[in-house]
Specification:
Layout: H1 3-13, E1 18-22, E2 39-44, E3 54-59, E4 62-68, H2 74-79, E5 84-86, H3 90-105, E6 110-113, E7 119-121, H4 133-145
Helix pairs in contact: 3-4
């Protein structure tokens, strides 16, 4: 088992809530009783291939936010030079929180990873609650540019 998965399982077992937003494959298995009960993995696949690399931690009630250049794949962690940097500007932290909230609420292009490795696509609760993260983020970017 890769060390990063082992550490995420340890965090879950210690009671830490872990939300992972991935674009493609994920070797971790969420929702395994006693192992990964506190881990949720969603995959958002749509028009845009790039995705945010935002890392949000709560350390003893202190929020720490980072952005990075790579996802947590062995090729990136073990064989490339990648960068991760803290985000300390309150306005930027606020903007990143908005982005994360939009991604976590997606009910159109998000798929929830099950403990058996299968994915179940999220569906809007009703016809008026389409929360496509990519659509919302595109509209958000257009509004900010005006």
């Amino acid at each position: 088992m890769p060390p990063i998965i082992r550490k995420l399982y340890e965090a879950s077992q210690a009671g830490v809530q872990v939300d992972l937003i991935v674009r493609g494959i994920c070797c971790l298995r969420p929702g395994l009783e006693g192992i990964s009960d506190n881990i949720r993995v969603i995959s958002i696949v749509g028009r845009y291939l790039e995705h945010s690399r935002i890392f949000w931690f709560h350390n003893n009630s202190k929020e720490e936010v980072f952005i990075g250049s790579a996802d947590w794949m062995p090729r990136n962690l073990d064989h490339r030079v990648e960068a991760v940097t803290p985000v300390e500007d309150p306005d930027l932290v606020k903007e990143l929180r908005v982005i994360l909230d939009i991604l976590l609420a997606d009910d159109r292009q998000a798929w929830d990873l099950q403990s058996d490795g299968s994915y179940i696509q999220r569906r809007p609760a009703d016809a008026h609650s389409d929360k496509s993260a990519q659509r919302i983020l595109m509209e958000h970017a257009q509004q900010k540019s005006h």
